[in-house]
Specification:
three-stranded antiparallel sheet, alpha/beta, 16% strand, binds flavin mononucleotide, 345 residues, TIM Barrel
């Protein structure tokens, strides 16, 4: 059924279809069809899982960048997601890069994007999350706040942007992810260097300790880091007692694609996600988990389409998994289907 719908959806520009589909889902929910959607797609049975001291309804989350502005939380909850990572959120609103900036590579079951942190800005999103919390409609859905810096902020001042976002969102999110690994903000990935990371992360930890309730703080890393760079991240994470890592973001590599090179050349710069990223991101997860003997909890992201894909990530040591491109290709049944395979093991 979704395969047919996908064929139709794929006839239209990806970014437009994204909002069209989510708005259609919202319309259906408002006209009272929500219960039917949940009956179809919400995973049956008890899949609760505790990580970072948080009780997740299940281990399957939606990766950052899908609901950048926290506008579709109820709809995503109906589809069974255990957690949704909103963002990346920056202090000031941003339009992002020029369109088109999202491309499908159907032969590879992949996407390329150079969105560039388009978002409503932290104030608007914090307000939205506040009313979501107040309406008590969350019923267990866990919200992650993925935070970044504005494009115009120089890297030396990046820590201030992370601080603004962290403070504004602190009352309304359950955990934080510091994003320094998106390829679409010029220079951002340089912040993955150990001393830059130390400055940003330790500063946020100090602010965190001053709050009545602390939020787990995680770091999201790129799949393109060298082993030396991953070792640096691991050393730092252990030293400063970071709560966890999200591995991985999209890749800048175009290796091994089935799609014609002329097509990918014409698309140009951007982060590649989906099936071509799967192996690389599993390797990163496995490397971190083996090297630290599981001391650093990991959320796996990259090329997860099926229960078997998710199991590969949990076998590699990940506690939780996130989908994004897989959701586009597999459709609304993805959470239910993965939960069947990676329920409490
Ligand atoms: C269109 C698009 C936008 C994204 N935006 C963000 C973002 O704003 N912040 C972030 O940390 N990751 C972002 N990502 C990366 C995803 O969260 C995820 O880590 C990556 O796509 C790998 O997972 P996948 O293969 O399941 O898609 C984005 C991915 C896509 C496809």
């Amino acid at each position: 059924m979704y395969k047919l719908l996908r064929q139709i959806l794929f006839l239209f520009p990806p970014e437009r279809v994204h909002y069209l589909s989510m708005n259609a889902l919202r319309f259906l929910r408002r006209t009272g069809v929500g219960k039917i959607i949940a009956a179809l797609y919400y995973p049956k049975g008890d899949h609760h899982f505790t990580a970072f001291g948080i009780r997740f309804p299940n281990r399957v989350g939606l990766g950052a960048g899908f609901d950048k502005n926290a506008r579709y939380l109820r709809e995503l909850q109906l589809l069974g997601f255990g957690f949704v990572e909103t963002g990346t959120i920056t202090p000031l609103p941003q339009a992002g890069n020029d369109k088109p900036r999202l491309f499908r590579l159907p032969k590879d079951k992949a996407l390329i994007n150079r969105m560039g942190f388009n978002n409503d800005g932290v104030k608007v999103i914090a307000d939205r999350l506040k009313s979501w919390k107040e309406q008590k409609c969350s019923s267990g859905l866990i919200i992650g706040g993925n935070i970044g810096k504005n494009k115009a902020t120089p890297n030396e001042d990046a820590w201030k942007d992370y601080e603004v976002c962290f403070k504004e969102l602190h009352p309304y999110v359950d955990y934080f992810v510091v994003n320094v690994s998106s390829p679409n903000t010029p220079g951002l990935r340089e912040l993955q260097e150990k001393e830059s990371l130390r400055k940003i992360l330790t500063h946020l930890q100090v602010i965190n300790r001053q709050q009545a309730q602390q939020r787990p703080l995680l770091l999201k890393i790129a799949p393109d880091l060298s082993l030396e760079q991953i070792d640096d991240v691991i050393d730092l994470a252990l030293e400063i007692k970071l709560d966890g890592l999200v591995a991985t973001n999209t890749t800048i590599s175009r290796e091994g694609l089935l799609t014609d090179k002329r097509k990918t050349d014409a698309i140009g710069a951007g982060g590649l996600s989906g099936k071509p990223l799967e192996k690389k991101s599993t390797e990163v997860v496995r490397y971190i988990c083996e090297k630290t003997k599981g001391k650093i909890p990991v959320i796996a992201s990259g090329g997860i389409f099926t229960g078997a894909d998710a199991k590969e990530k949990t076998d590699a040591g990940a506690l939780l998994v996130q989908v994004w491109t897989g959701f586009i290709y597999e459709g609304p049944g993805i959470v239910k289907s993965i939960c069947k395979t990676i329920s409490i093991q």
